[in-house]
Amino acid sequence: MSVNQQIGHFENQLNSFDPVQRRQALSSLVQLAERGEVSVKPSSEIANMHCHSFFSYNGYDMSPSGLAWMAKREGIKLLGIVDFDVLDGVEEFLDACELLNVRGTAGLETRVFLEEFKNDELNSPGEPGISYHMGVGFCRNSLQTSGQAIIEDMRKRADNRNRAMISRLNQYLSPLHLDYDVDVRPLTPAGNATERHMLTALVEKSRTTIPDFVGFWSQKLDISFSSVEEMARDIPKFKNAVRAKLMKRGGVAYMQPDESTFPGVDEAHQLITGAGAIPCITWLDGTSSGEQKFEELLALLIGKGAGALNIVPDRNWNIEDPAIKKVKLANLYTVVALADQFDLPVLAGTEMNAPGQKFVDDFDVPELAPVCDAFLRGAYFLYGHTMLERFAGMGYQSIWADRELGSRKNKNDFFEKAGIQVEPKDASRILGKIDTTMTSDEVLAVIN
Q1: Strands, DSSP E only, in 35-90?
Q2: What confidence score (pLDDT) does residue 309 get?
Q3: Is 410 helix (H, G, I), strand (E, B) or coil?
Q4: H or E stretch including 218?
Q5: Which of the 8 DSSP states describes residue 205?
Q6: Which residues of the chain have pLDDT under 50?
Q7: 3-state secondary structure of 235
Q8: Is the pTM of the predicted complex or chain greater than 0.85?
Q9: Are 226 and 303 part of one and the same domain?
Q10: Is the peptide bond before 125 cis (omega within 30 degrees of 0)?
Q11: What domain range includes position 114?
Q12: For position 142, what pLDDT does the model report?
């Protein structure tokens, strides 16, 4: 087997559902890289702090280890995974990043109900009071008893929603029929299926069980035969059409959420802070009624413990319509400035939860020039917190940080400095020399 064949073989194994295979493949790739037999780009000042792994849904079927290796090969200096409703990939990802010397962080994404904005759309279109929300800076898969109960409830709610959606889809799409446990859950390594797994199962099963694939979908989607033929040549495009027609708002399988569908924001924050992580606000594009009151929303969520803000920049500048682009780009600049005013580090990423999404944002485009510095500072901050929490128990939520640093601004500055200075390969050794009796200046002196 040639070296290139070995690389391809190990990179495929990196995304196996078998964790032993993933560990062995990563070790083999590291050995090849150390011998100079793998092409690796130099590390660049770029970051993607919002990547879903295959523990929820990744558009390229990447595992946490696969994502860490992708960052190494592509020269992405800082990378953060974020999975829906689970922490299954946290330790694997952080271990892989340490091995590869990539500054890694790990988080969780969910949806919450916000009583104070129950009449406003936020960042989940058409769903008043419902907000996508995150916890960032987790260091381990396990949680305290109270947090474990909350995350198990979140997972159970998601499972119930999925099964109800499958039931509606089966009723409408007959004779096509999905068995959730047979056709959907096996598409993910730990049974945490998402809407996109259901979508994949629908399209793939229809290919193998429906003789007239084009005619079937033409009827069910109520679009022309020729349109289905054209879209079927581009599977991601076809899947988006199916999802929009059947699963999103107005579709036959859509269920309008209310205050009982998702946990309250306070309950989510209890889970996040109890694990030493940081509640993180997520922002869409500033056009909804709730996001037009963003200063009020920020103040409310900061008061409930939020310490960071997440943005997916492509939604705000990579837009064909110049009039829409102008509005959303201006909103982006406004919200980044507002985050600075509120002492909220900004985290940016591409999500990678659909085929075609970028490995990293275009940090060199003119549209992002005014905000790239904020994105990098936020990434270094989150890595700094992760490293100090993981190896010394002295992260953002620690008693030590509250005593020695106090304000959000002081915490932001300290963890950003730490994140810039310490490389992952050195973190365990260096942070073994610090303890909670030291002042922040003493800790930085050791780090430097």
Answers
A1: 44-51, 76-84
A2: 98
A3: helix
A4: helix 213-221
A5: H
A6: none
A7: helix
A8: yes
A9: no
A10: no
A11: 40-139+275-442
A12: 83
